[in-house]
Amino acid sequence: MSVDKNLLEQTSLDLLEQRGVTISDIGELVLFLQKDYVPGLTLEDCNENVRAVLKKREVQNTIVTGIQLDILAEEGKLLSPLQEILSEDKGLYGIDEIMALSIVNVYGSIGFTNYGYIDKVKPGILEKLNIHDGKVVHTFLDDIVGAIAAAAASRIAHAVEDDK
User: Fold this and answer.
1) Which residues contact 145 (CB under 8 A, 6 or more apart)?
2) Based on the structure, what is the number of domains in the chain?
3) Rounded to two decimals, what is the model's pTM?
């Protein structure tokens, strides 16, 4: 039984929305990353590139997997010690970043530097997602959103370089 491509795409978009993340939220991160390097860059340009990244099956698979794990952690349905690791977003866990790197890889090595920077400074929606309130778990989601933004920023950088 194969997975319907449209179902996977729609599910990934729905999950982002259910978790409070919009395309514009991610677009603002892209603008943050690229505004100093691309004169005249608009939020709509950034949103368009986010949409392009979200069309990639690897990205959709990562979104669906990561958010499902966050939800299971919120519901207390994981085995110990994974339950505690995800609930507390332990710093040395690292699997959340490894999954995010699968998204970053889609548009080349510039994505690594974009991702590392945005993961460190946590602007915009990333700051909100990184709050550990004991109710909502975003262990995977914050890294996934940062990686989508980094990939979209890389896509823009490649397009600008190609235009030169």
Assistant:
1) 16, 21, 25, 26, 29, 125, 126, 129
2) 1
3) 0.95
